[in-house]
Amino acid sequence: MLTLYQEALEQSPEHILIAESAAITDVSLLITGLTPSNEDYYPTIVVSTLMSVIRDQSLTHLHATVIDAVMNIYTTLGLKCVPFLGKVIPGFLEVLRNSAQGREEGYFNQLAVLVRTVRQHIRPFLPQITQVLSDLWPRVPSAHATMLSLIESIARCLEGEFKVFLAPLLPHILGVLDQDQTPRRAASERVLHAFLVFGSSAEEYMHLILPVIIRMFERQNQSQSTRKAAIETIGKLTKKVNISDFASRIIHPLSRVIAGNDVVLRHAALETLTALVFQLGPDYLIFIPMINKVIFELASLDM
Description:
By secondary structure, this protein is mainly α. The chain is built from 16 helices and no strands.
């Protein structure tokens, strides 16, 4: 018997370890009173066994397969698997931290799917998740879009509660707007979309967010599409947050765009200005002389 065991161990050590782990888990569950007649018995065994593989650093070559298996369980059983999050999330994050370069994006995508599956039940684990996001953000710039997708999923699940967890992530997110040097600035436009998803959760951080967006559309060396997206983002934000305290800092740069030669940007600026008027109400009166002067000058040039 010992010889047979040794041969099996040599041929497939990971299968032996998994089997041993399952046996130990089975016994421990019986001790705690969870029997095969319980609905949670078999899912608990499977999840516990999979997480024991995650904890075993000699089985790192199986970790991606384990994460795939866990995701299949959650997408199939949905909220029935919420009780297992206490085991799954720490293991998932450990795999993320130690993953080989190039695999992070896939893991973040899977974590976003998991968040959308369990919705508000992810809340107890957000301190650990946001810490991993903060730690890995500088290391994997290629995964920023997927990380933003994960952050958006969290924001949608928590709505107003998300603002607490946004604070440590915001410097990284804003950094994308200043550091993105790609011709299309696709990453920057992805961040602008994220601000709209954050909605009211981002309201108390507008003093940090708005100046960066304004710089985006003020820079002459930016592409037209990026400048237009930045202008339109401010207009859309007026429907989600109160930015009246920043009216002067927004309207003066918009007036310069309106006075410029780019018709597309001028139209976008006028649309955003109209949205601001609706939010400001009577407070907009002090800006009327300035805007009228710009519009009259444009009209005289067209004549």
